[in-house]
């Protein structure tokens, strides 16, 4: 902050110069005015002396006129270049008063309307935190300084969750949703914080949040993980396995949390068997998608490719879907229960299905330019299925 106040001081000095320079010029003009008055007084005194000498008979009338003319020339020489003083309507006290008030008012107005706290906060955030508490304190200050920043509130909520302050996190995520809109990832975070704030008691409110999040994005990871936890705590082990399998399918292969998640799935399966249940087998179909020669000549590498499986006899909505680009073809993907768009629309729930791949330049899964379809297949099929995109999309 030192360099900031130095710069502010220089600006104030510049402003003061515009007020003080006229005052200094006025003093110079006053000195010139005083010198002129002195010269006039000396001139008048010289004339008086000449008249006295003329009356005493020392000077003749001609010598008197010569002396008077000489005194006049000296007066003119002394006052040459002196400007007449300009009268100021403001007077001298007002500029001096303004010079005193400018820095005082400037500092007062900046402290009231300025952003010195934000400047200091920015400097503080640029330094690495020394602890989690330090980071949380900084985020709290940032949220107070910028209450309309959804991003700042989001990170504050995550910090609260890391510290186990789930009730505070739930309130912050609720504010974040109010600012940023009902985005699925924010709804999932809010539901998770509320669940732990309520001592792991499931409620209609939490169910509504997770339902809304998964309706907007069936692959929203926080909601899938939370539903799996709630199902496990409620001894609904098969449901926990299903939710966690769907979550596992979304995680990258190198994600460190995959091992912990698989451990949870294994524990749920063990609990299910201990209670006399049977773990439902997950249906998985493997498909290799490629392009015909004609299609290759008419597509762009950036075009979207939607690969999905749908029931031959059932709802038109896809049972599972994955999205790639033309540049990634040919590609082999797996579609199974873990990719289900909805829990009730799992691949294993339908005996006969069809594989479909569609190219959509606009990125719309329901309409495109080219399409490929397989023959009807049993949902229990495990062999690799080739699928070629070779027909115009009607």
UniProtKB/TrEMBL annotation:
InterPro entries: C-type_cytochrome_biogenesis (IPR051263), Cyt_c_biogenesis_CcmI (IPR017560), Ig_CycH (IPR056412), TPR-like_helical_dom_sf (IPR011990), TPR_CcmH_CycH (IPR056413), TPR_rpt (IPR019734). Residues 132-256 form the Cytochrome c-type biogenesis protein H TPR domain. Keywords: Cytochrome c-type biogenesis, Membrane, Repeat, TPR repeat, Transmembrane, Transmembrane helix. TPR repeats lie at residues 150-183. Coiled coil: none annotated. PANTHER family: CYTOCHROME C-TYPE BIOGENESIS PROTEIN CCMH, CYTOCHROME C-TYPE BIOGENESIS PROTEIN CYCH. This is Cytochrome C.
């Amino acid at each position: 902050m030192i360099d900031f106040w130095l710069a502010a001081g220089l600006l104030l000095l510049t402003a003061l110069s515009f007020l003080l320079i006229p005052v200094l010029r006025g003093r110079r003009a006053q000195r010139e005015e005083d010198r002129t008055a002195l010269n006039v007084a000396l001139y008048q005194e010289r004339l008086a002396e000449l008249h006295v000498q003329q009356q005493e008979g020392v000077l003749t009338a001609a010598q008197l006129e010569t002396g008077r003319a000489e005194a006049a020339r000296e007066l003119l020489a002394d006052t040459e270049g002196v400007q007449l003083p300009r009268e100021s309507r403001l007077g001298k006290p007002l500029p001096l008063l303004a010079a005193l008030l400018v820095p005082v008012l400037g500092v007062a107005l900046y402290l009231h309307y300025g952003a010195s706290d934000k400047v200091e906060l920015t400097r503080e955030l640029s330094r690495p935190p020394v602890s989690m508490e330090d980071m949380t304190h900084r985020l709290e200050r940032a949220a107070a300084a910028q209450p309309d920043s959804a991003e700042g509130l989001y990170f504050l909520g995550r910090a609260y969750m890391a510290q186990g302050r789930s009730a505070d996190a739930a309130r912050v995520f609720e504010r974040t949703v109010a600012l940023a809109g009902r985005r699925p990832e924010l709804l999932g975070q809010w539901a998770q914080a509320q669940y732990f704030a309520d001592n792991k008691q499931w409620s209609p409110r939490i169910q509504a949040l997770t339902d809304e999040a998964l309706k907007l994005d069936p692959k929203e990871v926080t909601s899938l993980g939370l539903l799996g936890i709630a199902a496990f705590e409620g001894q609904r082990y098969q449901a926990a396995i299903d939710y966690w399998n769907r979550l596992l399918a979304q995680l990258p292969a190198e994600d460190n949390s995959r091992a912990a998640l698989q451990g949870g799935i294994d524990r749920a399966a063990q609990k299910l068997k201990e209670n006399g249940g049977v773990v439902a087998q997950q249906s998985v179909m493997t498909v290799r998608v490629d392009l015909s020669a004609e299609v290759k000549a008419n597509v762009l590498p950036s075009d979207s490719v939607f690969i999905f499986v749908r029931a031959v006899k059932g709802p038109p909505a896809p049972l599972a879907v994955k999205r790639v680009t033309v540049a990634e073809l040919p590609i082999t993907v797996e579609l199974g229960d873990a990719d289900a768009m909805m829990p009730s629309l799992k691949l294993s729930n339908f005996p006969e299905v069809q594989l479909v791949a569609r190219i959509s330049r606009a990125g719309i899964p329901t309409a495109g330019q080219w399409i490929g379809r397989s023959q009807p297949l049993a949902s229990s099929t495990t062999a690799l299925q080739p699928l070629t995109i070779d027909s115009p999309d009607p």
